[in-house]
Amino acid sequence: MLAQQMAPTAEVPFPPTVGDFFTPSILGGDDQWLTKYSILVWVAVAAIIIYFLMSYRDPKLVPTKKQWMAESIYNFGRNTIAKDMIGHEGLRFAPYLTTLFCFILLTNFMGIIPGIQTSPNSHIAMPLVMAAISYVMFIYVGIQKNGAGTFFKNHLMPPAPWFMMPILIPIELASNFIFRPATLALRLFANMFAGHVILLVFTLGGFVLLNSESLFLKPVSLLSWALAIGLTFLEALVAVLQAYVFTVLTASYVSGALAEEH
Amino acid sequence: MMGYLIGGMAVWGGVGYLVDRWLDTGGIATAIGLVLGMAGAIYLVVRRMSA
C-alpha cells in the first residue's frame, strides 16, 4: 500500500479504498499516533489560536481591517448562531459555538487546500469526539438549569394523549439520546469522507483514462479532471455548510435542553 | 427531525424483529413494528413542530 502511494504515476491506485485514509506513520513503524492527520489537527488548533490572538492583540475602538475580520467571525457565532438559536441565555455558549464552528470549518477546508487535500474530519474519531462534547454539554446544562426530573420529562414525554405514550416514549429516548449524537457525528464524517473519495475517483480516474489503451478514452481524462476541479468548489460549499450545520444543531440541542416547557 | 423518523422505525422495527425471532412469525411483526414506528415518528414530528 505504501509503495502504491509513493509512486502514483507508475501504477495508479484505482479505485480508491478506505486504506487511502490511513496514511503511514510519520515516525515509521507501527506507531500510529503521529500521522498526517494528527499534525493537521495541531495545525488547525494553532492556526485558530494564533489568528485570534494576533487580530485582537491591540484592539481599537474603531477596528482595523484584521480586527474587523475576526470580530465578524465571532459576531457570526455569537449573534447568528448563539443568540438566534438559543436566545439571550445562549450568549454564554457563544465562545464554545464559535470555536467549534472555526475548528470544523478549518479542518473541513483542509480537504480542498492544495497540498493537504484531506480533512481530519474524514476520520470518524474527530466528529465523534466533537459530537460527544456537544452531547455531554446539552445534557449537563439541561440538568443544571431545570433539574434532572424536568429535563428528562421534557425530552421523553411528548405533548400527546396518554395512550400514545407507550409508542412515543421509546422513540423519544432513541432519537434524543442515541440518534442525536450518532447522526451529528456521522453527518460530518460521511460528508467529508465521501467528498474526499469523490475527488480521488475523478482525479485518479483521469490518470487511469489517460493510461488506457483506447485512443477514444484518453481525451475523456480532461473531462474527468475538469469535473474534479468543479467538485472541489462543491466541496468548499459542503465544508462551510457542514460546519454551520454541526454548530447550529449543537445550539439547537442546547436550546431544547434549556427550554422550560414544551 | 431525521432522528425521530430513523428512531421511530429503528425502535419499533427492532421490537418487531425481536418478536418475529421469538414467535417465529416470519416478518409480519417487523412490518407492523416499522409501520407503527413510522406513524409514531410522524405524529411526534407534527406535534413537536407545531407546538
Structure notes:
The complex is a heterodimer of chains A (262) and B (51). Chain A is an all-alpha fold and 262 residues long. Chain A has a domain of 167 residues. Chain A is built from seven helices and no strands. In chain A, helix 2 packs across helix 4, helix 3 packs across helix 4 and helix 3 crosses helix 7. The longest helix of chain A is centred in the C-terminal third of the chain and has 47 residues. Chain B is mainly α and 51 residues long. Helix content of chain B is 88%, strand content 0%. Chain B has two helices and no strands. In chain B, helix 1 runs antiparallel to helix 2. Chain B is elongated, with a radius of gyration of 12 Å. The mean pLDDT of chain B is 85. Chains A and B meet through helix 6 of A and helix 1 and helix 2 of B. Chain A: Belongs to the ATPase A chain family. Chain A: Its main location: membrane.
Describe the structure concisely.
The complex is a heterodimer of chains A (262) and B (51). Chain A is mostly helical.
Global morphology of chain B: elongated
State the helical fraction of chain B.
over 70%
What percent strand of chain B? Answer: under 5%
Q: Which strand-content bin applies to the residues of chain A?
A: under 5%
Number of strands of chain A: 0
Family (chain A): Belongs to the ATPase A chain family.
Pfam family, one (chain A): ATP-synt_A
Protein name (chain A): ATP synthase subunit a
Keywords (chain A): ATP synthesis, Cell membrane, CF(0), Hydrogen ion transport, Ion transport, Membrane, Transmembrane, Transmembrane helix, Transport
